[in-house]
Each structure stands twice: as C-alpha cells, then as structure tokens.
Specification:
Length: about 325
C-alpha cells in the first residue's frame, strides 16, 4: 500500500506542476470549450474555457505504467485509457471545429466504444482475468463471455461518466474517489498492475481537480471523461469486480438513468420528471450552486466507494 500511496503523491505533484503551463498553452492556441445553448444559462459564461485537460492525466498514468510496470495486465488498463482518450479527443476536435457543437454522432460513438470494449474483453481473456467476483457465487470463470460483458460495460460506463462531466469538478471528484477505492482494493491484494494505474490516475485526477474546481480554469473534455470511463471498466475487471461497477459508480449510474428516464418521458408522453437532465442540471435549475451539487454527489460517491471496499473485504473476495 505504501508504494501505491507514493504513486498517488508523485502523480498529484506532477499534475499540479504541469497543469498551469498546459492551461497557458491551450489559452494561447484558443482551444476552448463550446457550450450548448440548451444547457443551463449560467453555463454560457464557460464558453471558451480551455479543454483537453484529460490528456495530461492520461499521460501521467501512461508514464507511471511505463516506469513501474510495463506488464500485460497493466497494459489492458492503459490501452483502455488511451483508446477512450483517442475517441474523446476526436469528439472534442469535432465539437470545437464544427458548427454542430455536438461532436460525434451518438451511434458513431457507441460503435467505436463497442469496438474498444471488445478489445478490452479480449485483453482480459488473454491475460486470464476472466474470474469476476460476485457476492454469494464466489468468482465464477466467465471465459470468453468476458468479451461481450466488457463491451457492454464500456459503452455504459464511458457514456455515464461523460454525462456526469457537466459541472465544474463533478466528474473529477467522483472519479478520484472511485479510483482511490480501486487502489485501496488492489494494493493490499498485491494486484499491483491495477494498483499502479489506478493510483497514478487518482493522483493525476486529484491534481486536475485543483484547476477544475468552480470556477474551472480547464475542462477534461470528452478526452478525459471517455478515457476515465473505459479505464474504469478495465481496472474493475482487473480486481475481479466488474459486477460491482453499478455500486462503485452509483453516481454515474444515476446520472445516466436520469437522462434515459427524462428523455423517454418527454418523447413518448410529452412530460418530464426532472426540470433538466442529467440530474446535476436538475438541481442547478432548482437553485443549487455548482459547489453544493458537487459536494452532494461526491459524498454519495464516497459512501458507495466505502461500501464497495467493505463488501470486498468482509464478503471474502479472493
């Protein structure tokens, strides 16, 4: 565990040192976020805020893996991280340069995410990470069944994290807590391949949060949110907890469900359950500040992470 904590600290320091020059570079190059007009009106002032911030915490995690690991198991998580980042970067580029303001089409993104998920599943199968713990069932061997499961999980989690990234500091704070939970599970179990990547991301995302807290000086963009979503699937699978993702990422699950429910009600019944979706926008419309929304959601993420850690400890996870 000491090694994992050291990785977190070094990654955090690296991020704190490197983010200011990155912000300056993005400002000089005028690489800024374009804000959709249908979002909360208070968000219009965020127009032009530097984006692509997720690229740096991905590079810090990559550096940690190259220096401390370079193993096949860790590579699966690194591949997931970089593949998600590449897709997100393409989406950000389209968003910045296109007049559509929406980035890639929904089906285009889902198709690529599915391919990335299949690759993650194949990587898990090849490295023997097909045993996934489930309370009451032990750790059944899914065999090559891990491939479609990983593909579905990648599509679901990547988009859920992306939807959560709509308020300054929200996705970063929740994800930092989740990643710390995975680190806390992996390191004591001597699953250091996952622990190194998770710890590096924990520290680097925490450093990003310093500059992403309201009012944000930089956004992670789809580059960061899709990278974190895909990496989370791989890391959860590497600690044999793919089934625990709905609990561990409860904030992301609720955010995604809020969009599905609200959009379905509007399209089919011309009624809405929430004033706006995802859920964080609903609370903003009710008058909650961004800081209060982030604090509340982060508290839920912290409790869910704690329960996941306790579950794996007391339920006898191998």
């Amino acid at each position: 565990m000491i090694e994992a904590v050291a990785v977190i600290v070094v990654a955090f320091v690296a991020g704190v040192v490197l983010y200011p020059p990155l912000v300056s570079l993005l400002v000089r190059r005028r690489i800024g976020q374009r804000v959709a007009s249908y979002g909360p009106q208070t968000h219009l002032r965020k127009e032009g805020t530097p984006t692509f911030g997720g690229a740096l915490f991905c590079l810090i995690a990559l550096a940690a893996w190259l220096i401390l690991d370079r193993g096949r198991v860790g590579f699966v998580a690194v591949f997931a991280l970089l593949a998600g980042a590449a897709l997100g970067a393409l989406d950000d580029i389209v968003n910045i340069t296109s007049t559509r303001h929406r980035g890639l089409g929904a089906w285009e993104r889902v198709a690529v995410e599915g391919v990335v998920g299949v690759c993650i599943g194949i990587g898990l199968a090849v490295t023997g990470l097909t045993h996934q713990y489930f309370p009451g069932l032990g750790a059944p061997d899914l065999g090559w069944g891990i491939v479609p499961l990983a593909a579905l999980a990648t599509i679901a989690v990547a988009n859920a994290v992306n939807l959560t990234d709509g308020v300054d500091g929200l996705a970063a704070s929740c994800m930092a807590l989740v990643l710390f939970g995975i680190t806390f599970i992996a390191a004591p179990a001597h699953e250091m391949h996952a622990a190194i990547v998770a710890a590096a991301l924990t520290g680097a995302v925490a450093a990003f949060l310093v500059f992403n807290w309201h009012p944000a000086r930089i956004f992670m963009g789809d580059t960061g949110s899709l990278a974190l979503g895909t990496a989370l699937v791989a890391l959860a699978a590497e600690v044999h907890l793919l089934w625990a993702l709905p609990l561990l990422g409860i904030v992301f699950v609720v955010e995604a469900l809020s969009v599905i429910v609200n959009v379905t009600l509007i399209r089919r019944f011309h009624r809405r359950l929430l004033r706006a979706s995802p859920l964080h926008h609903h609370f903003e419309e009710l008058g909650a500040s961004e800081e209060r929304v982030v604090a509340g959601f982060a508290a839920v993420a912290a409790v869910a992470t704690m329960f996941t850690v306790l579950l794996t400890h007391y339920a006898g996870k191998p």
